[in-house]
Amino acid sequence: MSPVAKKQPGALILDTPVEELAGVGPVYVRRLKRVEIETVRDLLRYFPRRYDDLRDVKTLDEISRFGELPIGERVTLKAKIISVNSRRSRYGKALVSAQIGSEKGTIEAIWFNQPFVAKDLKTGQEYLFSGKLREAYGRVSLQSPTYEPVKATVDGQTHTARLVPVYPERETISSKWFRQKIRLALPAANQFTEDLPEALRKTNNLPGIADAIKHIHFPETPEQAERARTRFDFTELFVMQILTQRLRASWRNQGAVKIPYNPKITTKFINSLPWKLTDDQRRATHEILKDLDSKAPMLRLLEGDVGSGKTAVAAAAANQVITAGHQVAIIAPTEVLARQHFATLSAWFEPPEIKPLMLLGSQTAKEKKEAKELIASCEGKLIIGTHALIQEDVDWSNLALAIVDEQHRFGVEQRKALRGQTAPHLLSMTATPIPRSLALTAYGDQDLSIIKEMPEGRVPVKTVLLSRGDRDAAFSAIREALGRSEQAFIIYPVIADSRSGLKAAEDEYHNLSKTVLAGYETGLLHGRLSAEEKDAVMTKFTNQEIEVLISTTVVEVGVDVPNATVMVIEEAQRFGLAQLHQLRGRVGRGENMGRCYLLPGQAKDDDNERLETMTKTQSGFTLAEKDLELRGPGELLGTKQSGFDVSLAGLTNPQLLKAAQTAARDIVEHDPDLKTVPELKPRVEGAVLPA
Ligand code: ADP
Ligand code: MG
Questions:
Q1: Can you state the angle between helices 263-272 and 279-292, rounded to 10 degrees?
Q2: What is the CATH number of the domain that holds 548?
Q3: pTM of the prediction?
Q4: 585 Cβ inside 6 Å of ligand 1
Q5: Is the minimum distance from the CB of 275 to ligand 1 under 6 angstroms?
Q6: Which residues on adjacent β-strands are paired with residue 136?
Q7: What are the start-end ranges of the H helices in 256-362?
Q8: Whether residues 579 and 606 fall in one domain
Q9: Which domain holds residue 329?
């Protein structure tokens, strides 16, 4: 079979493999596969990031103003090819130049290193050229312009003279390549099955799926593109909201123990704390106590920056529940953190009334048995542990409140494991400062309390952005801190030597231990260690047996070592701002000021600009919003991992969210089996919300 016959356009269907499109060879097939594009359907689902507006087409005559050409401006020129010349530059590079224009006058268009251009351009034919006008040696030229023969209609143009889609470049596939192939695939757009009911589209003024696919790629107007984008955002939000509402309904429909709101008890407790609660802490406490005073189980997310004092809020809630005679479980992500909470809470809750107890995976069988007996008899009222609390066979007959630290959302299965005769009220806590608008979208099954304000007298972590040549300064700062018997962290984005050429934790651990940190106690921590190994390293660091901890981002989660004062973050450009902020929150938690040194590797200018914000603000919320603006919501929310693809505009559009919410509520209530939206069923069934 000849390749031409194989590539008959008539045969194009959504399931057509990409290799059957003209000009898609095995190399591109492999690259596309890596970004999960295998069929025409996948390709059409690959959306542009933005559009270049090249609609303003002019002739050479029309762009000259009083005989002068607008040097430095981007223009789209309609011009005839007068002549084409192909040669090599002095340095041996291919150089194609063409005289373009009309009988009235011409200018030169030049392409470097693109010898194939000479074959493309047909003398005597009209083309459209988009590019910047430059002047060199007194001559004006268009340098490496995009070019395309003039088609019968504007809509026939792909690369010029229209709103030109700009695609995210992945796996070295250029935007232009995507554009060309998506154009070829576009006729298959009509085959998409409509997945939003007409009524819903009408109410929300959304185009049908075929039109939306066409318009998101090749819109005639910006409004058309926006409406198409909104349609897809709406669909994603709708699916997310269906899941969210289902979760919420199934949780809230269970019975919980009602804990009467008793302000006296809480006032007494918070007055016993060593400091006054901040207003935000008070508000959050109040919101939680109100939730507890209900037979429907609470489902609340408490969001507050590192060090904002979430533990005190959790403790006040725990106190209320325990005083009412019920049990509270606190689940920490690691044993180190569980021990930390145990120490803090043991000081706040005075024995003998409330004696906190621990249940950890690393305890002996005897210790675990004892703990479980105390839980079963309800003698133990405040139980602190790790996920062992869920995995171990515990009798939770009197558990009224579960507090989950450093997690956005507690899984359905995990919730079930904590259920006794009633469901516990559930409080999740996170230090990821997700802006409210986003939290409502992604974690909308939960109610939200936010602590924005930090306790008074917090000394900010001094943050310094170093250039690559200043690496030594960072290590000197570490040695100085060690000289004062303080401790330090060094953070890397990857564990081991990677193809990317980034500095890696394991390699640098060996390097540094032999060089700049020779003679100091160093330790290595990363995600490939087992939970026990990790805990062992962290315990050594906490006990100051390790002076410098070399680590990946696993230390992000809630570690509190007040004696650690310096953090050096290598390859800082690789981290999001919110993440950097979480990391730096690990130092300066004691009496001595914390210092954080950011060491970018191969940073670009905008990386440096981004990192510079770290030196200017200590607010996690400000940084999260900046992250959102610069890197999109995927990273902050983990929506990308869960397969939701909502644009930033969609995620932060309250009206759209509201509309999706209303529609989802309606479906969950009246059509829980999704009979009216069968096309959405597989999508809903296969989807997972961000954790
Ligand atoms: P996080 O929100 O990161 O869990 P913590 O609850 O660990 O924060 O609190 C951080 C530190 O701030 C702790 O040492 C705690 O004792 C202290 N703290 C909490 N609330 C206040 C307050 N209102 N005033 C002063 N210090 C406080
Ligand atoms: Mg905490």
A1: 140
A2: 3.40.50.300
A3: 0.76
A4: no
A5: yes
A6: 139
A7: 263-272, 279-292, 310-323, 335-348
A8: yes
A9: 263-293+309-430
pLDDT in tens, 7-43: 455 579 999 999 999 999 999 999 999 999 999 999 9
Q: Would you state the pLDDT for residue 136?
A: 80
Beta strands 299-304 and 425-430 are parallel
Claim to verify: residue 421 and residue 468 sit in the same structural domain: no
d(C-alpha 617, C-alpha 620), whole Å? 8
Residue 183 pLDDT greater than 80, yes or no: yes
For residue 586, give the ligand nearest its CA. Answer: 1
From the CB of 312, is ligand 1 less than 6 Å away? yes
Ligand 2 mean position to 272 CA, how many Å? 20
Contact 277 CB / ligand 1 (< 6 Å): yes
Q: Between 605-616 and 577-584, two packed helices, what is the crossing angle to 10 degrees? A: 40
DSSP bridge pairs for 522? 548
Ligand 1 pocket: which of 311, 582, 591 to mutate (most atoms within 8 A of CB): 311
Residue nearest (by alpha carbon) to ligand 1 atom 16: 309
Is there a domain that residue 240 lies in? no
Residue 379 lies in a domain: yes
385 falls within a domain: yes
Q: Strands 57-58 and 50-53: what pairing?
A: unpaired
Going along 466-556, which residue ranges are E strands?
Answer: 487-491, 522-525, 548-551
Q: Quote the number of domains for the chain.
A: 4
* Position 684 in a domain: no
Beta carbons of 42 and 69 less than 8 angstroms apart: no
Task: Give the pLDDT confidence score for residue 642 in this predicted structure.
Answer: 54
